[in-house]
Amino acid sequence: MSSSTSSSLTFIGQQITIYGGFIIIITGVLGNLINSIVFLSLKTFRQSSCAFYLTIMSIVNIGQLLAGLLSRVIIYGYGIDWTTKSVFFCKFRVPFFELCALMSYACLCLATIDQYLATCTRPRWQTWSNIKIAHCLIVISLIISIIILIPYPIYLNHVTVATGTIVCTVTNEMVAQYRGYFVPLFLAGFIPDFITVLFGILAYRNVQQIAYRTVPLVRRELDKQLTVMVLVQVVINLFTNVPCATMNSVVYGTSNITNASILERIQFVYTVTIIIFYSYFAVSENHED
Predict the structure, then answer these.
(1) Which residue range(s) make up the domain with 41?
(2) For residue 230, what is the domain's CATH number?
(3) Is residue 289 part of a domain?
(4) Which helix (H) or strand (E) holds 157?
């Protein structure tokens, strides 16, 4: 690949980041704000544990878009990198937006499992779908997510590279591999994907049979609507998360590649999958049945 082609890919990737990123940020922040207002304003949703998970997910999605995507647009689109100018921002940015991402996936997993339990035929299992348990599970998820990310602010530091440029990077090799492979590929990748797809299918099967049960009409319609919301999010997550999780590991595994053209192609594909990945956090859950 010629240097002109390489420059073209870099330019195209930059434009995708700028324009695609701003569109996702604007629509995502507005959409998630509307979702939060709807879920919090309607009594029916306030009493639903699934709607509570979706409300928390909308809130952390806003944090992910602003801390993750907005700063990425500024860094890769305009060359303004605040992480190299401030030690605090260097240590704060990555842990914060990854905390939002982990909480978003935790909420989606919990919402999917909750809908399976709520639509289950066994009354004992249905009792596990309640707002008090939902509050406890969100707190537990937050604590676990914070523990997972503790190494980040410790080992994220300013480093001066050979060219004299200051970069914000992980200074411990094991933590770098932990961040590059384990967290994105498993904790924020294939594990939540597997859980949401599995319980999404089970919840869908339950909803298909709910018409044949003696269930109040209002409860039946609410369960159907919430299940549709969750299933749409599951499908979107599957198609946006798998490519990005895979490419993230590919990028971290290219340290031994010296061919500039190959690296350029990999970086371009990674840029595209990152924008696709962030579209998950911008998609509205407020779908009508």
Answers:
(1) 3-282
(2) 1.20.1070.10
(3) no
(4) strand 156-160
Handedness of CA 194, 196, 201, 202 (dihedral sign): positive
Condensed to tens digits (0 to 9), the pLDDT of residues 226-251 reads 788 888 889 988 889 888 888 877 77
Which long-range contacts link 51-55 to residues 24+ away (Cβ below 8 Å)?
A: 51/226, 52/131, 52/134, 52/135, 52/138, 53/107, 53/108, 53/110, 53/111, 53/114, 53/134, 53/138, 54/107, 54/111, 54/226, 54/229, 54/230, 54/285
pLDDT for residue 63? 94
Tokens of 75: 């860094």
pLDDT one-digit tens code per residue, 87-124: 999 999 999 999 999 999 999 999 999 999 988 888 88
Q: Is residue 125 one of the residues assigned to a domain?
A: yes
Sequence-distant (≥ 6) Cβ neighbours of residue 165 within 8 angstroms: 84
Q: pLDDT band at residue 209, thresholds of 50, 70 and 90?
A: confident
